[in-house]
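Per reviewer request, we include the raw input and output of the structure prediction for the construct analysed in the revised manuscript.
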Amino acid sequence: MTDAFKWRHYEPKIILTCISWYLRYSLSYRNLEEMMTECGLSVDHSTIFRWAQRYAPELYERCRPHLKQTNNSWRLDETCVTVRGKWMYLYRAVDSTGQTCEFLANETRNTRAAKRIFRQVLGRSNVTAPRVINVDKNPFYIDAERNLERKGTLPDHCKRRQSAGIPRQMSWERPAQERVTSMSDRIPESHLDLIEGPIVATLAT
């Protein structure tokens, strides 16, 4: 994307720094405006907001090919979060090491939403087909799995494990990638280390 920063008043490194800090840490746009001021730069918080809306989806897509492969043991769970003042269900899938496979913000908690998160995970090139899926007692996961197994979307050998509690690999301490789900495409924390590597180089050229 040669002309990604064409006509921008600020250097690409400044723009990408603001975006990566916003996505990685629990910072508001006004916090970033103050931080830039302390660095001797005058950047309005509304400008940083526009940068995030413009470039975060692009970073999200460019990070995908660089992700390491997940293993075949999945954990799925959901929690409630507020997005623009509205309560939503945030679904997240991780592997046994805690690496994020996929996440989804949805207004409802039902079989349709469960099938959607399954399809999104299975559609990722860096995600290994599951050998076992660990879920809680939510009946919607069971219905979704059975439906996808009948359609051949899930492999026949895949096993399901149910437990009453949240798997230890899944911490809902509100990391940065879940805090910022108000944007249509968000960057999981496992993607963020790539921002200062080859992704920035391709965007800044």
